[in-house]
Amino acid sequence: MNKIAVGIVGVFLAVSVFGQNPFVQEDARTFTPPLSPRTVGYRISAKLDTDSHIIAGKEQIYFLNTSNKSIQSMQVHLYLNAFASNQTPMAREIAPLRNMLKVPVNRKTIGYCRILHLTVNFSSVLHTLEVDNTVATFALPYPLKPGESTLIEIEFETRLPRLVIRSGYAGTFHMIAQWFPKLGVLGQDGNWDCPQYGGNGEFFSDFGVYDVAFNVPEGFYVVATGVKQQETTANHRNMFHFYAEDVHDFVAAVWDQFKFRKKTVGNCELTVAYAPGHEAVSLREMDALEGTFNWYNTHIGSYPYSAYTVIDTPFCAIGASGMEYPMVSTGFALKLFPKWFRIPEETVVHEFGHSYFQGMLASNEFTEAWLDEGINTYMTALIMEDLYGKCNFNALPRFCASSLDRMMNSDYSALRYQKPNQPANTYADRHAYAQASYNKVCLLLKTLENIIGKEEMTSIMKDYFSQFRFEHPTGTDFLEIFNSHTNNRFANLMDTMINSNSFPDAAVLRVTRNANPSFKGFVPERVAYMETPDPTNTVRFSIVLVKEDLPLPVPYRLTFSDGSEVNGELGILDSSKTVTVDKPANVRLVEARIDPERKILIDLNRSNNRYSTEGNASRRMGSTALFLAIMELSFYVF
Amino acid sequence: MFFNTLKREMVIHYLSRVALLVLAYFVVAPGHFIPERFELFHVFGLWHQLAPLVLPIVLILYFLDGWLILSALATLLGRPLKRTDFLMYISTTLFYLFLYLLIAGILYAAFSPLITHLRLTSNTAVPVLVIYIVLVLFIAIFWKWLSYLKWTCRISHFQQDTGFSLKTIVAGWSNLLKWKDIMIYVLIVSYTVGIPVILLAIGAYLQTAPLIASALMAAMVCYTIGKFYLLYTLWNRIAQ
């Protein structure tokens, strides 16, 4: 180590001692005091070759050991190695998607991230580097004690894969996400949380400061996390400089065809960076973004950053759509989507929600995906209803549907074997992951909203946000806040739904109708009770209702042909109940229905909630017509 | 009038379709039609459950339809059905089915590089959709043209009435480019399929039982009259 290096390390350590992240730019300082602990800092310069899709990068990483132990080694993610061949766990998971998008695996479409040089406090440790697919481990030249910081310098080469999921290139569009060697998260026990990169579950990182310079060919524009500090052109290259404080990731999208729609709301500049041809749909995305931005600022807490951008990806890059990153998200929109089909709006609402749930409340998306995805899916449904009303997903007359309606029509049988609270890579498949992490938690929270009210639920979310923003909250933290707000009334329910393989279901099991016995006297030969149904007498309806994995009172309603109704409920602890009702013999049971007001949405099989003697003729006819159409189609083929 | 000539076949054809409707109404997954789960295309999602039911019915209908068509053609010729007529019917079905699949495969293979290129490069979904529409249009044109040839072969077989040989399955190829006949064929088929589809679409959109029921009945009438009117028209055209 030479004298200059010793001097730099000295300054670096001195700065660290005073608790200041050395990558904070005094002239561009955004938040004073800092919003987060800023235990990491990244200063990156990257040069993108848009023909080979290779990024040549250099990065400096500041790291502060906040654990209770000295550490001997460090772990970094090399995410894009997940696309290095068709044999990685990620490649196997996304094979169906790859086939659908018609992207083969070959030397032009693979991706990787390689570390070329690696020093820790100016000592090379490259020889200690061990790479296991998407995780690299290297030894420190000396143990890093609690409270000490260090400087890691890395020279790396990243090749972007052909875009299938989240990051890569498509035509000249480059979605540059998970692209640089990035530290795992050091736990209090001194162990690294740095799992392999897969298709299910997403990311978990420490908050820090990002100071990133992007060098791209002239004509290309960069949209990225943070605030653009500078844009210069020299030697047919454009240089973009971005700076972001208190975020936990940095992504960029590079393209030569971006068009922009901007709007300033309060102190924040909202932008939709869209593809040519998407003018109309980008307007809808901007409206949704503004509405959601205002909703969160009013009901949950203020959005502190000065910018937010929705990247409306071109059709060829559709694999990048619907992803959340700090200060940036990707939309999902096709030019052909009609106005009544609000999937572009729903995507914007959902992804902006992640600015709060996972962006600022930085929970672990790998071990507790439900904590951000489940809550955010519920928030999406809530906000979509506030912004667009009842038919918030499909506004086509006669086919009115909300975001929640889609979830209620799903097949949840996988939840008999999978639960929300399990690591993302342990789910059977992507469907089970989505059902457990997104839908089940959303339906659970919506059920509770129907019981305790929207205001109380919003207040819980607001409290959760204000207590844990810019921290790493866990599921236990959220449940504690929820239970304290509701006086533990639903503690058992929450535990059953989240921590066990429960399949909550209430059903009308059986309906029987018996003539009441009429006493006629004793038969002399053998003492017996003689039963003779009397048409003028009453009949007895017995309705058997059952319930499993659902520690909630569940209402039911029986409707009879004389217009009378019987209302009641299955108690919290009831697993079954037989309701008997006596009626005149000419009265029919028109309908027995569990949850008639559709409030217990966590009932995952709603197809058994209703017994009825009156069918819905038009729907059945419609299905018959469709059946017939299929048959005629099959027939005409011959 | 063709109705007088072919009334027996037409009545059986119509009744078989109505029977199918009644069957479908009562057996199509009745447990699934509750409001919470109903979606317009939900029945497609049930395809794997319905297939074991649908496929045997399709086969039964195929044989019933074949018998009725052959019976109609024999009636027009004024002779009873022969065993070779059935042989001709099955062999033309298989041969032209093979040609459909071959041409559809060739067309898909020909379009595939362009489709892949557009999917991987276009900014909007419009070019991809357009190219798919063009592909489907090409397949439909060839499909209908081959169907026309198949029908002319079958009718020619009866009109020549020389018994079955391998030449029978290409007996109608002398009508290869009779544009007027082809257009008549396409028009009849379009009306036969088009009118019920429009009626069913309106009925499904409005979700009113009487309208859907009327559409279904109209569809049955269209299928029956369309099919036999087609036979009769082509018979007369080819006889000329």
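Chain B touches chain A through 60 residues (CB under 8 Å).
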